[in-house]
């Protein structure tokens, strides 16, 4: 990798690491053992499920349109794992999330009745639009492979958010498989994303667009948590 590509890759990495959504107030409340707010955890998880349902679509488009053969195979492996769970010896990743939702006491009817809040829908739409437009492939790759998959790598005092949630809410390893699998796999996925985007962005304009995509996607995640928190507070006041 040339010096300019290496510098750009590092810039992308540092930008991702500057956006720590685990610092959002909603997680302070969720991770407080004294609070143990299962109702809020259910609401956050059911919005997260809206994202999970679309993730395979993102990766399939990135695989289909990938212009670099050396990265295309890795994306195919990602699609295979998302769809089957065979590599992690678990299950389809949507099913893993459904298992977590069930562990929170949410049945299928309740789960399937939930629709995305406005900020959740905005995040979904931004990534869908990016990956479906081949002319902005580098933007879609940055938004999904770096900013989105990078969300699963955050820790507090060396522990991932799902490990902390497991302790607070008494969840077991099976319940948390969706998160433990992604935390392990997404280390490699983010690195692949950094390598792919730094390879694709051959002009200053493309680099600025990719940096914006990472920044904007991370901000959309934060805005999504803001929206969840507002909606929960409003519903709690009504109750």
Task: Give a brief rundown of this model.
By secondary structure, the protein is an all-alpha fold. It contains eleven helices and two strands, in the order H-H-H-H-H-H-H-H-E-E-H-H-H.
The proportion of residues in beta strands is under 5%
* Domain tally: 1
CA radius of gyration is: 18 Å
CATH domain class: Mainly Alpha
Going by CATH, the homologous superfamily would be Heme oxygenase-like
Say what oligomer this is.
single chain
| SS field, number of helical segments | 11
Structural commentary:
This protein has 239 residues and is mostly helical. It has a single domain (3-238), classed as Up-down Bundle (Heme Oxygenase, Chain A), CATH 1.20.910. The protein is 74% helix and 2% strand. The protein has 11 helices and 2 strands. It has a two-stranded antiparallel ribbon with strand order 1-2. Helix 1 packs parallel to helix 11 (204-238) and helix 3 (38-65) packs antiparallel against helix 11 (204-238). The protein is globular.
Keywords:
239 residues, mainly alpha, Heme Oxygenase, Chain A, two-stranded antiparallel sheet, 11 helices, 2 strands
């Amino acid at each position: 990798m040339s010096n300019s590509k290496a510098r750009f890759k590092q810039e992308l990495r540092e930008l991702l690491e500057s956006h720590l959504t685990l610092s959002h107030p909603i997680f302070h409340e969720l991770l407080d053992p004294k609070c143990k707010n299962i109702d809020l955890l259910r609401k956050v998880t059911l919005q997260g499920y809206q994202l999970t349902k679309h993730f395979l679509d993102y990766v399939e488009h990135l695989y289909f349109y990938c212009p670099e053969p050396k990265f295309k195979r890795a994306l195919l492996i990602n699609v295979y794992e998302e769809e089957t769970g065979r590599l992690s010896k678990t299950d389809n990743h949507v099913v893993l999330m459904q298992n977590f939702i069930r562990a929170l006491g949410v049945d299928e009817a309740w789960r399937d009745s939930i629709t995305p809040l406005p900020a959740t829908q905005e995040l979904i739409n931004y990534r869908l639009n990016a990956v479906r437009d081949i002319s902005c492939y580098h933007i879609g790759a940055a938004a999904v492979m770096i900013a989105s998959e990078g969300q699963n790598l955050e820790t507090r005092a060396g522990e991932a958010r799902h490990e902390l949630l497991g302790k607070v809410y008494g969840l077991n390893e099976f319940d948390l498989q969706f998160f433990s699998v992604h935390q392990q796999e997404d280390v490699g996925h983010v690195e692949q994303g950094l390598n792919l985007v730094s390879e694709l962005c051959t002009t200053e304009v493309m680099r600025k667009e990719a940096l914006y995509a990472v920044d904007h996607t991370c901000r959309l995640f934060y805005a999504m948590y803001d929206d969840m928190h507002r909606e929960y507070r409003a519903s709690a006041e009504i109750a």
